Amino acid sequence: MSSTFDQIANIIAETCDIPRDTIKPESHAIDDLGIDSLDFLDIAFAIDKAFGIKMPLEKWTQEVNDGKATTEQYFVLQNLADRIDELVAAKNAAPGA
Amino acid sequence: MNLDYFQLIDRIVDLNLDEKKITVEAQVPAAHTIFEGHFPGFPIMPGVLLTEAMAQSSGWLLLGLLKFERMPFLAIVKEAKMRGFVSPGQLLTIEAKLEHEGSGFAVTKAKVRVGKELKCSAEITFGLAPFPDPALRVHMDAMANKIGFPLQAITHD
């Protein structure tokens, strides 16, 4: 089974027409890959579907805007993969999961 | 359907918040200047307007699911397929279903039929934002009343 990073890199490559080999774990989705908010919305839909989660984009954006988090924490792809893994783990740990 | 004001939906036939779907009707006018240009001798409803009709239908569904607390704004249209011509005077039945509710966005799938014939379909993504102006909220309330939005559907769970 491919890693979470590989799965989101494939989604980004397909959604944004970015060559897959240019997408690295250390890539920043916005600063390095030039993904804008509309494309990210499309990516979020694909990620939510692929992993069966609801990425809390509004919460993350608010944390960045409030200075409580940096964009790197959420938009460097390896960090994004880690956040997704946390969300999947939390979902699986939830009662009734 | 009031094309001059871009109000494409006439009536909500059914809003089912449990199943997250809506059915609406829209009467294409028998005559309009749009049909004089699109096209002379062969008047048909422009695909962009059919797409907008699917978006507005989806929008009413989302307003119901959001209890009018946020406004859906059109962001992405995918897989918009114009499967058959729609002529002046035809009655459209439009169904929209929630495909996914994300954080700050929602995705629907919508279909337009004339009778039993499927005329077009699309997957539509909306950004969900607070109402940017109180006047818009007032307008949406008035439109909801006009098209028979079942307010009781959102006043109790």
From TrEMBL, chain A:
One Pfam assignment: PP-binding
Domain of life: Bacteria
Matches recorded under InterPro entries: ACP-like_sf, PP-bd_ACP, Ppantetheine_attach_site
Record-annotated Carrier domain positions: 2-88
Keywords linked to the UniProt accession: Phosphopantetheine, Phosphoprotein
Keyword ATP-binding: no
UniProt xrefs under NCBIfam families: PRK06508.1 (NF005079)
Name of protein: Acyl carrier protein
